[in-house]
Structure formats: structure tokens, C-alpha cells
């Protein structure tokens, strides 16, 4: 995370970008959580106040609308990724959003799942089977079936063993073998968990 805007190096010099009051083409906030290039070559900038899309031709930014009747101001954007079908998934302090290049931004209601307090979405990754893995601050790991938007929580193995030592997930990555690595905030000597492609525990670290 940076707290003093965005810097671009072109091989010769740095150009700096900041939030400017009254200028909607500037960054929406100087605190930046994540950067991501989509398949169209656009730079997406996750800030403390929404998701910005950089226009290289104009050297300006536009802010995607991540608010609805339940969200009064732009949320913090912690994670951004694009799945194999071109859908952009956005993890925020107010939950999970997604959009494609032809559609408006929509929200996945993770908070409705079992009445859980989910908190922010800190990590997003597409699994080899096409499902989206979602790491949350308060409720651990979820999967989202992209076509039906079916949400499931990964909580226990078939033998009843807890998958995660802590429900505050900070990062999720998938290695070249299809194993899922999950990093958590707490958990003592079990701050990370490794699962195979069937979501069975391989090891703790």
C-alpha cells in the first residue's frame, strides 16, 4: 500500500499522480492498495476511495461507481483480478463487486450468506475449475460459481477439520500444481494453509 499517490517511470523520468480536489479526472484518493492491468491493457487502481481506471491517451482517471442504496461513499478497494471470461472482480471494504466490459458494476451479497459478518474482501483469485476464491476479513474463504453466482463457504474438510486457523484471510494464491495457498492474519503456528485442487488440506505453515 502507498499513501502518497501513484508514480509511473517511463525509463527516463517519474510522473506522479495525486488526488486533486474538484478534479474528477484525478485519482479519487492518494492511498493506493492495489494495481492491476486488465486484458484490454487498462490500469486499474484500487484506492481508499474506489476503483480508478487510467486513460493512457488522455493521461486521466475515471472512477467506477461502487455505491448503491446501502453504500453512501466509495469503499476501499483491496484486490482486483480478471477471470478467464473477461469479468473483473473487485474486493472492497464493503464486499465483492464484479463487471464485464459490456455491463455495469454489480455486487455479490456475501454478507447474506448464513447471516455472517464477512467484513472486507482482501483477496481474489480464479481457481483452475473456473470458480472464484474470495478471502475475507471475518469469515474466511468463499467460492463463487461465476455463471449462477452461487456462493459457498469453505470451512471444514470432509473429516471435519477446520480448513483455516484464522478467519481473517490476507492473501490467496494458486501455484503451478493447482494448489491453493491461503495466508491469514493470525493463527499462531498455522498462519498459512495449503489446499489441493479438491480443497483438501495438504499442509500448514
Topology:
Blueprint: E1 6-9, E2 14-17, E3 32-37, E4 43-47, E5 50-55, E6 60-63, E7 77-82, E8 88-92, E9 95-99, E10 106-108, E11 121-126, E12 132-136, E13 141-145, E14 150-154, E15 169-174, E16 180-184, E17 192-195, E18 201-204
Antiparallel strand pairs: 1-2, 3-4, 4-5, 5-6, 7-8, 8-9, 9-10, 11-12, 12-13, 13-14, 15-16, 16-17, 17-18
Number of helices: 0
Spatial separation of the terminal alpha carbons: 25 Å
Widest sheet: strand ordering: 3-4-5-6
Arithmetic mean of pLDDT:
85
Q: Using the alpha-carbon principal axes, give the shape.
A: globular
The gyration radius over C-alpha positions equals 18 Å
Beta strands, count: 18
Helix content: under 10%
Unreliable spans are none
Description:
The chain has strands at 6-9, 14-17, 32-37, 43-47, 50-55, 60-63, 77-82, 88-92, 95-99, 106-108, 121-126, 132-136, 141-145, 150-154, 169-174, 180-184, 192-195, 201-204. It has 205 residues and is mostly beta strands. The strands form five sheets. It has a four-stranded antiparallel sheet with strand order 3-4-5-6, with no helix packed on it. It has a four-stranded antiparallel sheet with strand order 7-8-9-10, with no helix packed on it. The protein is globular, with a radius of gyration of 18 Å.
Summarize the structure.
The chain is an all-beta fold. The protein has strands at 6-9, 14-17, 32-37, 43-47, 50-55, 60-63, 77-82, 88-92, 95-99, 106-108, 121-126, 132-136, 141-145, 150-154, 169-174, 180-184, 192-195, 201-204.
